[in-house]
From TrEMBL:
It comes from the Bacteria. It comes from Streptomyces paludis. The chain holds residues 57 to 682 of 859 of the full protein. The keyword Calcium does not apply. It catalyses: Hydrolysis of terminal non-reducing alpha-L-arabinofuranoside residues in alpha-L-arabinosides. This is non-reducing end alpha-L-arabinofuranosidase.
Length: 626
């Protein structure tokens, strides 16, 4: 029975309560939302980003002349350090390179237009003829080739359009130089004309629209672990551009050929083509409040490194003040002027900004957070500076974090947790007892650990608890938002995609229900029922657990009674979260789960409700030495 008490008023629910958290994980930006089709367009991939990378990653050579990647003072600019040098030998086949795009290839659709561009310079007196062709992996032409002549030995950009004459997902972009001489090339780019809102160099339409369809109240960006992990320093004289650098917004604005590229925390190179200006613009497009996260000079995400450098801290604080000026300042201010020059004289209306993400060394973090907060509030008293509570839903770091945040009267604290569906069901009342005189809550990341119906159901049940506490839980976002099926570092995820298709998970549908039907006010209600257990249940059921193999080697999963179920031998040293899993046919027989596969004979005895069994799994992980 459901009893609704219309006589009493519950808390008001803000329009901004449900939002999205975008992070470049699972190729969410490069190869995902950022619609660029050429991978490693600037030849900047490096073994410092990933052991398998080199400047010609995603490229192959063609023809008989000389093909080389060069990093010398002939470069396009100081940020874009490596370029491609071709020395065609006058043969008819010419000399060139072919790009294979991301994962399966470059997807093209018959009749659609694709905008090509390249920076080039040549010492050939009559110029260098360049042929740009799109063809499938098997060589089938996908478009009429484009012919361009590069002239002069100064860098200049050349553009053109290719119109697809066939549909394919394994496209290759071939760039061939003819004649003789030396031609230098950089920033080889191909974008679909049909981007979100038709912006050149813009966002992949289906993904941008799926996010927009949620009608998010806010957009938290750009991370996550992405933001706060890596070196906090800038340019490294010895090794060139700092390859593992915390996310710094000034690296990400202005002409794309002048933006930095470097290693991404999630194991691939980030181009920053989707940068701070684009994030603000997208937030505005979808009616979401922008909520950037800046690094705090303490690396969270299990890395626990503290940078103790007062001058560097001052620079990062200044960068953050400049960021606020970039978002909100008048066009007469230094950074407000830059925003206007990029095409947006109107302020972006930034009201919230988070410093840090999931720091374990919390006291050190909080010291730095306080320095940021003091400087920001002195200059911009209307900006809400968001803190966090470390990487988990409870425990000593969490308690210490809350104590510090409470004592310092911080306005909003970012909580993160990824737990089982059962945990979400059991914690519906988590916020009922939160201290109303303390900081409010930004639930910046949460998900129940899988993408099945029961996960969405447990999240939806939990969200009723968030909503009931809308006076203290001010913002909430599921995470992660996007995942490429061919490059997944973290699961579950809200929206999945490959090169041409995208689809929402069950959790996407649950989020959409809440986000597009947000109430104005909570009406107090009570429900009573006796849960019915129906059975037996038979079918394919997955057992899974999560571990990060940077810390763990072997993971063994046993039933609640200690029965071994399965083991997974993780490859040591991989810092990504991985799921050990066993999928099989399971039957519930009198409260016992029996795997009916011929391959394994495992039995899990459940206690209580037999509807879902993995609540009772016990995980034993063997820690790696050191
Ligand atoms: O959402 C994926 C990751 O989970 C985020 O980068 C991090 O903040 C959290 O640990």
């Amino acid at each position: 029975a459901l009893t609704v008490d219309t006589a009493r008023q519950g808390p008001k629910i803000d329009d901004t309560m449900y939002g999205v958290f975008f992070e470049d994980i699972n190729r969410a930006a490069d190869g995902g939302l950022y619609a660029e089709l050429v991978q490693n367009r600037s030849f900047e991939y490096s073994t410092a980003d990933h052991a398998s990378y080199h400047p010609l990653t995603a490229w192959t050579r063609t023809g008989s002349g000389e093909v080389a990647t060069v990093s010398d003072d002939g470069r396009l600019n100081e940020r874009n350090r490596t370029y491609l040098r071709l020395r065609p030998d006058g043969t008819e086949a010419g000399t060139g390179v072919v790009n294979s795009g991301y994962t399966a290839g470059i997807p093209v659709t018959d009749g659609r237009r694709y905008d090509f561009s390249v920076w080039a310079r040549t010492d050939a007196a009559d110029g260098t003829p360049l042929t740009v062709a799109l063809r499938a992996a098997d060589g089938t032409p996908l478009a009429e080739p484009l012919r361009i002549t590069a002239r002069g030995d100064r860098w200049a950009q050349y553009t053109g359009t290719l119109t697809a004459r066939a549909t394919g997902t394994t496209g290759r972009l071939a760039l061939t130089a003819g004649g003789t001489g030396t031609v230098r090339l950089d920033m080889v780019s191909l974008f679909p004309r049909d981007t979100y809102k038709g912006r050149p160099g813009g966002l992949r339409k289906d993904l941008a629209e799926k996010i927009a369809a949620l009608r998010p109240g806010f957009l938290r960006f750009p991370g996550g672990c992405l933001v706060n992990t890596g070196s906090h320093e800038g340019y490294d004289e010895a090794s060139g551009w700092q390859r593992k650098r915390s996310y710094q917004w000034k690296d990400t604005i202005g002409p794309v050929e002048e933006r930095a590229t470097n290693a991404n925390f999630w194991g691939y190179n980030q181009s920053y083509g989707l940068g701070y200006y684009e994030y603000f613009q997208y937030a505005e497009d979808i009616g979401a409040m922008p909520l950037p996260v800046v690094p705090a000079l303490v690396t969270g995400c299990g890395q626990n490194r503290v940078t103790d450098d007062p001058a560097l801290l001052r620079r990062h604080i200044q960068d953050t003040l400049d960021l606020i000026e970039f978002a909100n300042g008048p066009t007469t201010s230094v950074w407000g002027k830059k925003r206007a020059e990029l095409g947006h004289p109107k302020p972006f209306g930034l009201t919230h900004l988070a410093v840090g993400n999931e720091e374990n060394v919390f006291d050190a973090f909080f010291e730095r957070f306080t320095a940021f907060r003091t400087a920001i509030e002195a200059r911009y008293p209307d900006i809400t500076v968001v803190s966090n509570s470390g990487p988990d839903a409870g425990g000593p770091t969490f308690d210490r974090a809350w104590q510090l945040n409470r004592d310092a009267k911080v306005a909003l604290v970012d909580e993160h947790y990824y737990r089982s569906p059962q945990w979400f069901l059991e914690n519906n009342e988590r916020y009922d007892s939160y201290d109303r005189s303390g900081p409010q809550v930004f639930l910046g990341e949460y998900a129940s650990q899988d993408n099945r119906f029961r996960n969405a159901l447990s999240e939806a049940a939990f969200m009723t608890g968030l909503e009931r506490n809308a006076d203290i839980v001010k913002l909430a976002s599921y995470a992660p938002l996007l995942a490429d099926t061919a490059s997944t570092q973290w699961r579950p995820d809200m929206i999945w995609f490959d090169s041409t298709r995208s689809w929402g998970s069950t959790s996407y549908e649950a989020q959409k229900l809440f986000m597009t039907n947000t109430g104005d006010r909570v009406v107090p209600s009570t429900a009573t029922a006796t849960p019915a257990v129906t059975g037996p249940i038979t079918g394919a059921i997955g057992l899974s657990t999560w571990a990060t193999s940077a810390a763990y080697d072997d993971v063994t999963v046993t039933g609640a009674d200690g029965t071994p179920l399965f083991a997974d031998d993780f490859s040591a040293g991989d810092s990504r979260w991985t799921r050990a899993e066993n999928r099989g046919n399971w039957t519930v027989q009198g409260g016992r789960y029996v795997q009916s596969d011929a391959t394994a004979e495992n039995t899990l005895v459940t206690a209580g409700d037999p509807a879902w069994h993995d609540y009772d799994l016990r995980t034993k992980a063997t820690k790696l030495s050191g």
